[in-house]
Amino acid sequence: MAGKMSKMALKPMNVAAGFAAGAAAGFLFKQAWKVVAGEDDAPDAGDPDRGWTEILIAAALQGAIFSIVKAAVHRGGVITTHKLTGTWPD
Quick check: pTM over 0.90? Predict the structure, then answer.
C-alpha cells in the first residue's frame, strides 16, 4: 500500500521531470548538431535537399540523446523516490 501511495504522490513530479527532460534533450540535440554538422538546424526527413545519410545520422543522434536523457531522469526519479519513501518503486 505504501508503494502505491508514494507512486501517486510523485506522479506530478515525474510528469514535470518528463517535460523538462524533453526540453533539455531538444536543446542538447540542437547543440550537438551544431558541433557535428556545423549547421543551426538539423535536417527534416521530408527535406528534398538533404540526403539519406545526413537524415539518418541526425535521427540516430537525436534518438541517442533523448534515450540517455530519459534514462537519466527516470533513474534519478527512482532513486529520489527510494530516498523519500524508503521503498523501491515498481
Answer: no
